[in-house]
């Protein structure tokens, strides 16, 4: 496990950036989705972990 310290502002920016990337991946055509499914899964997982960490503070 790796610990990273982020300010509240940095965490918010990171979450917004991940959300924008997630939306871009979800907007792609279904044929292309097969290539990006792994990225989407990781982004969603990371976002959930970051939100949980933000709420825990």
Describe the secondary structure blueprint for this structure.
Elements: H1 8-26, H2 30-56
Helix pairs in contact: 1-2
Please give a structural write-up:
- The protein has 57 residues and is an all-alpha fold.
- 81% of the residues lie in helices and 0% in strands.
- It is built from two helices and no strands.
- It has helices spanning 8-26, 30-56.
- 0% of the residues are buried.
- The model has no long low-confidence stretch (mean pLDDT 88).
Structural class: mainly alpha
**How large is the count of helical segments?**
2
Q: Which range does the strand content fall in?
A: under 5%
| Low-confidence blocks of residues | none
Mean pLDDT: 88
Largest sheet: none
* SSE order: HH
The geometry reads as elongated
Radius of gyration, whole Å: 13 Å
Number of strands: 0
Give the gist of this structure.
The protein is mainly α and 57 residues long. Helix content is 81%, strand content 0%.
Salient structural properties:
single chain, 57 residues, mainly alpha, 2 helices, 81% helix, elongated
């Amino acid at each position: 496990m790796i610990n990273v310290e982020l300010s509240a502002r940095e965490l918010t920016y990171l979450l917004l950036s991940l959300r924008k990337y997630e939306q871009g991946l979800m907007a792609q055509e279904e044929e292309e989705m097969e290539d990006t499914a792994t990225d989407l899964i990781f982004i969603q997982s990371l976002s959930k972990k970051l939100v949980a960490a933000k709420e825990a503070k």
